[in-house]
Amino acid sequence: MTTLSSGFARARRWLRDHPLAFDATLALGALVAMICGSFAGPGTGHGPTFGARTPEPFSVLLMVLTALALVLRRRRPLAVLAATGALSATEYVLMDPPAPVVMSAVIALYTVASRTDRPTTWRVGLLTMGALTAAAMIFGSTPWYSQENLGVFAWTGMAGAAGDAVRSRRAFVDAIRERAERAERTREGEARRRVAEERLRIARDLHDVVAHHIALVNVQAGVAAHVMDKRPDQAKEALAHVREASRSALNELRVTVGLLRQQGDPEAPTEPAPGLAVLGELVGTFRNAGLPVEVACADAGPRLPAAVDLAAYRVIQEALTNVRKHAGAGARAEVSVVRVGATAEVTVLDNGRGSTARRPGAGPGDTADDGADSGGHGLIGMRERVTALGGALTAGPRYGGGFRVHAILPVEARTGEPERPGTAGGTGLCR
Fold this sequence. Notes:
By secondary structure, the chain is an alpha+beta fold. The chain has helices at 2-17, 19-38, 57-70, 77-94, 102-115, 118-139, 147-227, 232-258, 279-288, 306-326, 378-388, and strands at 40-41, 49-50, 293-297, 333-340, 343-350, 392-397, 403-410.
């Protein structure tokens, strides 16, 4: 049974891939059926009587011609229907009793209905039904209400209805398939967009971590090298700061890279991501590096969303790193974090007069914040991080010297913004 079903499936696939061969096979089957039917005559008992009559040579010719026309039913459906309908009507007009040539017209009408639109099916179907039924009733020797004449009407009507149903089902299946393909393309595009956003977010985190901690390591290492011989105690203190900064950098890098792990990989660190709750520790690292920083924060209020809390921390971290690298000797920084209505405002000011990349008159969109000749991306990263949450960031020289970074962050993160794994549930403005 399995072999038979598999062989049938292979034959069906082959005929589907070779439609002309399928139509030729169908035409041959129709010819055999028409010739067999032409030997049967209406019986008086419970069915037709076979061998009661013999088809005329002209009827055989018409059956062969209509079968040959069916071979082209897919290529020219309307022409094939016209030819088979005309030959069937000719059989009714000239032959009595007629041979079942009309069977070919029924197949042709089904083809037209299955391959055209519904209005065309109605017009052509009614015309074919009316013409063939009228020819059978008018020119036949049997009464007009005989079952043979009514059978012509019924078979042509069923052929049109069946063809229209097949066409509707094909259109429905094609619509479902097209909708599924469109949904798949949309899903793939959405997945690519989310991957790109996640990659950009991880790149920003890596930049913030590396830029901040490596800058501190560089400064403290330079201090240690400068005072190693004359003041070894101060050199040891600077090296301790180097060790602490490098340890912090490694921990934050481990948290960030842990986001890239696949399911089944070892557990990523569970330390909470940095936020305003540890702002004092961040400011302390800069003070240890020789940058005086004053902090002004509002009293602790309602907890900020984790994404907003992290963004505020990163903006302050990047802005202070830029001050330490570019503001020059003797610079001071001021940090303020306040809540105004439904937003949290972060401001970092300095009075530095450092590299030309930060000279007075530089535009607020200046991005040369990672070195005068490096073309860094610190301000770009801060602006992208803040904009992703629906906020706004401005950065530029201050009147009278120095630089100003001002970020406005909505208290509610943008809908759909992913939460950072391992973040604390949220913090107040400062601790």
